[in-house]
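Sample log: UvrABC system protein A.
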Amino acid sequence: MPDIETVCPVCKGARFSQEGLDIRYHGKNISDVLNMTVEEALDFFGEDKILSHKLGIMNELGLGYLTLGQSTTTLSGGEAQRVKLAYELAKIQRGSHNLYIMDEPTTGLHLSDIERLLLCINKLVDKGHTVLIIEHNLDVIKCADYVIDSSRVSDYV
């Protein structure tokens, strides 16, 4: 059976008490902020370097249309992987080298979003990280330094 959603008659879907909603930052309450898209929030929090950095990465990955308060259960597999990638890109520190493993990160993506994803993956590689991608998309495969063709693995075993 499909999920049933009802709107709270007290807060009318704002998800916070009136006391919480009375607190404002630059004229917006928490509900207003959570209903902003990543793109809108990037403009709104433009003065805050930390937030702008994190939101900017999400926007670069093609996630600018997501709302800040969007439930993770509503994300597609590709969106969820890009949110995780944005999290990792936002916390990268100099001197650390990580291995990132992605399973079909282009699933369900538009061609322009695949290009954005590849730019961000290249940023990881440029910073000295290793990225291992399990992928069938030829645009992604042609950007690889090394390709392992699973149909030929038995030749080497």
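Observation: The chain has seven helices and two strands.
Observation: Residues 111-126 form the longest helix (16 residues).
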